[in-house]
Each structure stands twice: as structure tokens, then as C-alpha cells.
Amino acid sequence: MDKIIAGIPGANDWKAIRKIEEGWSEDAKYFVEDKVGRRFLLRISDGNKYEEERQLYAALRGLNKVDILTSKLIDSGLCNDGKHTFRIFNWLEGEELTKVLGNFSERNQYLLGYSSGQILSHIHKVKSPADSVRWDTYYTRKISRKIELYHSCSINFPHAEKVINSIEDHRFLLEGRSQSLLHGDYHVGNFLLTPDQELAVIDFNRLDFGDPWEEFNRITWTASQSVSFARGQINGYFNDNIPADFFKLMALYIGVNLIGSIPWAIPYGDKELQTILKLSSEVMEWYDNFERSIPAWY
Question: pTM above the 0.85 mark?
Fold first, then answer.
């Protein structure tokens, strides 16, 4: 461990480092406490992509100026003679929302979801770089790649071709979409409930730039746990004034995520694959095999 953190500013003042095992991130995560009792979250990843990720770190620092409760990026850079990248965030106290959400009434689950939608709208105020590739150009390539990977994998799910047909029919909606900073994995599993009963969003390790509405492609995980929270998230994001094309685009992004999740899950083993297939079945039911654009739970 000493070798890995070599070169991180302030590391000599750390008195405690504890590895965090939870989560699916490829990053190594650590709880850190320094000699004066300050607590931090340390993330360590491969240093090979640091240069291309620097814009994202700059955007994440921009998020520090936005009035939301989240882990603030304190420092980032290379360590271990350039072999690794480090990111240091302030430590947030709280319980994982997924562990306590069921203790709330449906009304309060909705209100927590509404708050999560408002938080997301603030995240999206951080705009993408001016030289970003056009969204329709970038995402059309992503669609083609995910469909190709799905067709080449050994696992299929019922009526998948209906999803693919729906995706193809709605690609035109991508034209002219604006871009902003994206959390990249915005669902109920990436929140803490603080001791003051406030929502704090965590785990920006899939940070990206893109169409803000693509962020709703993970709402399937949320709705699977709490339909009330999912409804609230949509309404809170738009302040109860939902644009006409939103649900069509959300269905497109969910469909693409659905197709892509099957080949993604296979390397993680049968347990993860079965989880994805179960969720896929739920999503197909919500969307009536993608014959509708508004999910049944909404």
C-alpha cells in the first residue's frame, strides 16, 4: 500500500487507511483518516487514462461550486511513479439509501425521489467542453456497438428484437441534443441518507459528458426497488413540467442499456447474469415489449 500511495500530497499525515469492498467499481476505494481526525475517500485506478480523464476531473471540481450534497473532489493526480491515478474526496457520513428506503412510507419515498431529481438537475448545470463530439454522432456509434455485441453473445432474452427495432425507430431523437456533465450511474444505490435525513449522491466513478436525459437509463434499477422514488425523481428533475419527448428518449436510452447489459454481465458470472435477466424481464413488462414509451409504473 505504501508504494501505491507514494507521491500523493498529504499521505504522510494519514494515520488510518481501510479498504472498502462494497460496490462494482474497478477503482480501489479506501477510507482514510489523517492525524487531526479529518476523513476522506481515496480512489485509486490505473494511471494509463489520466490524460484523457483530466477534463472530467476539471468538471468534477466545477461541481464543487454547485449547491448539492455530494463528495467534493479535493485533489487528483498521478501516484506510484505514474502507474496509478488518485482522487481524494471528503468523507460523507450516512447510511446506504437502499438499506433504509423500505422503512419510509410511499409518500416519503416519493419525496426522497423528488429530491434526487432536483439534485440531478443541478449536476447537469455543469456543461460539457465546447469541443465535444456531437451527441447524435457519438451515441449512434454506441448503439451500433452495443447491438453488435448483443448479437454476438451467447445469451438472448425474449422479444429482444422488439427492443432493437424500437431503438432504430427512435434514433432520430438524438439529433440536436445538448450535453452536460453526467454522474454516469445515477440510481438509488448511489445515495446516502445523512444523519440529518438529507440525500447525498456518491460514486462519480462513471463520470462522463453527454445528453442529460441519458442519465435516466439507470432508473430501471431504482423502479425495481421503489416505484415511488422513481416517479419522484422524474417529476423533481423537471419541476413537474415534463417535456413532450422525454419519455421517448428515456425509453431509447433504457432500451440501449438493456441490450448492452447482457454482454456486460456475462464475464461477471451466472449470478450477475441472472440479476440482469430478471431486471430485463421487468423492463419488458413495464414497456409492454417496447410497444409503449411510458413505463407502466409511471
Answer: yes
Give yes or no for a contact between 136 and 175, defined as CB atoms under 8 angstroms apart: yes
* 72-80 average pLDDT score: 87
Order of strands, sheet of 95-96, starting from the edge strand that comes earlier in the sequence: 95-96, 191-193, 199-201
* Residue 58, domain CATH: 3.30.200.20
Pairwise CA distance, residues 275 & 281, whole Å: 10
Give the position of cell 476539471.
58
Cell of residue 98, nine digits: 437502499
Assign residue 131 the CATH number of its domain: 3.90.1200.10
Residues 162 and 279 in one domain: yes
Helix, strand, coil percentages (3-state) for the chain, rounded to 5, are 50, 15, 35
Picking from 226, 214, 211, the residue whose alpha carbon sits closest to that of residue 185 is 214
Amino acid at 205: N
- In this structure, the answer to whether residues 129 and 64 fall within a common structural domain is no
For residue 65, with 0-12 CB atoms within 10 Å meaning exposed, 13-18 middle and 19 or more buried, which class applies?
Answer: exposed
Full residue range of the structural domain in which residue 255 is found? 95-286
pLDDT digits (tens, 9 = 90+) for 111-128: 999 999 999 999 999 888
Looking at the fold, whether 40 and 66 belong to one and the same domain comes out as yes
pLDDT exceeds cutoff 80 at 57: no
Residue finishing a domain among 70, 90, 110: 90
Per-residue pLDDT, 1: 63
- Phi/psi at 273 (nearest 5 deg)? -60, -45
Q: Are 159 and 284 in contact (CB under 8 A)?
A: yes
Name residues whose C-beta falls within 8 Å of residue 180's C-beta, 6 or more positions apart in sequence: 123, 124, 125, 126, 127, 128, 209, 210, 212
- List, for residues 269-279, the tens digit of each pLDDT value: 889 899 999 99
The number of folded domains in the chain is: 2
Domain edge (last residue) among 71, 90, 109: 90
